[in-house]
Design a protein that fits this description.
mainly alpha, 8 helices
Length: 145
Amino acid sequence: MSAHGLEVFDKTIQTTDVWLKEIGEDMGGDRQAAYHALSAVLRTVRDRMPMELAAHLGAQLPMLVRGMYYDQWRPAEQPHKERSAAEFLGEVADNLGPMKPVDVEAATRAVFAALARHVTEGQVTKVRDAMPAEVRALWEGIEPR
């Protein structure tokens, strides 16, 4: 019997829990910090990709994570043109909102690692390659599954 009445809800909650646990462990934070990091990094990545690529990534995310990803999306305003890693990390920090201090670069890399583990290698490669060179450098050492 399903805990939430629908198996699809149980599966997305279970999958999201795995992602949050991994991100929290990788960034040295708790589940709440991992949740905020996942949401902030995904939205920052999304806003720097062409719309079609952003939609393809969204299709591979668990349903609950997909909701975070599409939250506040304004397709007509993308892709953003900022090129530097500092601008990217600054936007992640802005998207984190008011919470306890977190190492933004570590949080970003933790989310990138979760994507590499749970999204197809081809999609991860396309997402990484769509980023400016300085942002791609943040993926350094993170291998697709």
